[in-house]
């Protein structure tokens, strides 16, 4: 699933790039990609400039599967959030900016700077705290 999600985010990446990003041995990722190709979920597309290089793309079946998986996750999350009382919903809303920052750090493969505030000042335009209102919409407020 992680390989499918990665290829979805970065269509055209190579096996060695996927291995580096997932922090796995290239031969392990190559074996997994081979299985995904056999299952009809991933396509290897030859590089037009170098036929020895293959770029990974999702098949239509994989795109559909990922879309269904995302839709189902969103349904489950929305249902669980709807079950929360107002105090718990407020806690979740306040946590969203911190969770967004953590997601960025994870995606970038870096750690937070020591001593940096977990939640940026809401007065800073464009900061994750400014996006808290989107969390309120998602939480039904």
Verbal overview:
With 141 residues, the chain is mostly helical. It has two domains: 2-62, Arc Repressor Mutant, subunit A, CATH 1.10.10.10; 84-138, no CATH class. Helices cover 58% and strands 7% of the residues. It is built from six helices and two strands. The protein has helices at residues 2-9, 15-22, 26-38, 60-82, 86-108, 132-138; strands spanning 42-46, 54-58. A two-stranded antiparallel ribbon has the order 1-2. A hairpin with a 7-residue loop joins strand 1 (42-46) and strand 2 (54-58). Helix 2 crosses helix 3 (26-38). The radius of gyration is 19 Å and the shape is flat. The chain starts with a helix and ends with a helix.
